[in-house]
Amino acid sequence: MNWIRRLPGALSFFVRGAFTSVIGNVSLAVLSVALAVSLWVYVTDRENPTEVQTFNGSIALKFVNVPSGLDVANASETTVTLRVEAPKNEISKLRPGDFDASVNMGGFASGQVTVSVDATSSNSQVNVLDVVPPRIDVTLESRREKEVPVRVTTIGEPQQGFAATGQSAEPGTASVSGPESLVALVDYVAAEVILTGERADVTEDRVELKPRDAHGGEISRVTVNPVTTSVHVGIDQRDFTRTFVVSPVITGAPAGGYNVTDVNLDPGIVSVTATLDVLQSIDAVRGISTEEISIADSRSDVVRPVNLILPAGARQLAAGAGATPVRVTISIRPAKGEQSFRVAPQIRNAGAGLAATPADAVTVTLAGDVPTLQTITPESIAVIVDVQGLPAGLHSVPMEITPPAGTTVVRSDPAELGIALVERQ
Questions:
Q1: Which of 44, 35, 31 is nearest to 1 (CA)?
Q2: Alpha carbon distance 370, 350 (integer Å)
Q3: Cα–Cα distance for residue pair 313/311, rounded to 1 Å
Q4: What stretches of 134-287 adopt beta strand conformation (E)?
Q5: What would the pLDDT profile of 53-88 be if each residue is shown by its tens digit?
Q6: Phi, psi at residue 35, to the nearest 5°?
Q7: Model pTM?
Q8: Fewer CB in 10 Å around end: N or C, the chain?
Q9: How far apart are CA 24 and CA 376, in angstroms?
Q10: Residue 82 near residue 100 (C-beta atoms within 8 A)
């Protein structure tokens, strides 16, 4: 029991006092010590009782004393589980590193053998009760050694526009040794290098070598010498970036009387990435064309998100993933123009007994939006001639011209109207 292992500590704690008080009576001293120890063990077991549990973790097996010239080729188990006994507060602190599980291969010849598993704990308060499984099957084979090439294998891709151009390892070969059946499977040793996002040469001095078969599968239970190698992977820039203006491709024409007044592009300049020959094939003046944007019969602004027409092998360099459409805003406004109308003037406020001879029509020229001018009739234009207070005779009188809404008077012909006022008969 665990209290027996704790007995020395208990004795050192109580003996001195017991022997001091009863030094003259040996029997009484022995009895006092026994009672004190019993009480201490009882209290300790109540506060920190001994428990038996299956350790929550697997313990890796070690193969020791393997005969010279042989190696472990296979084992029915490589880990074991343990049932342990220990004080409660010790069990809660146990880790796999507190245990050692081994198989003693001393004295065996090549072939398959069944051997027992031994397990111990580095913690003196922990007792290993059971090992599961208690025995395993192990295959021993003759040890073999051979030389294989070092192969650099890359993981991931360099930054877009860059590419790995060459790779080398020093040393370029390595020795692998172990069970003959496993060594026979080894085709090369791999030195793995991560290239993800790289844009310059990668050099690593201590890259671990991993034995692989012809299909790239990793081979275990084989020793590689040397363990690491130095690797260099060259990375060159394959794609370059240039900026180009965006040229919108506009088809069709606005409705009659409307004009395109402005074209706005967002963005108006884009960055394009491609190989040098592809970039050189793009017209530096015209830039990058967009998809077609039709404005046929439009009477208002046309706003379209459109894609760029990029040559094969080129891509738009955008902040987000993929190409960003260009937002094209085409401003369409009514056209400005002039139009002349023949308008009959209205004579007003002739004096009593006077009459105005009929006046010829006046030519009035108006300015405004063409669509508005196209809707105007002569009757909608007011030309007023006020002859109030004028005597009989010939007069040149200014005209008051009121144009329709949305238009202005540019001129009139004549500028003043000649009026003849005669007495009524």
A1: 44
A2: 38
A3: 6
A4: 135-155, 162-170, 173-179, 188-194, 202-212, 223-225, 228-237, 240-251, 258-266, 269-274
A5: 999 889 999 999 999 999 999 999 999 999 999 998
A6: -65, -40
A7: 0.51
A8: C
A9: 142
A10: no
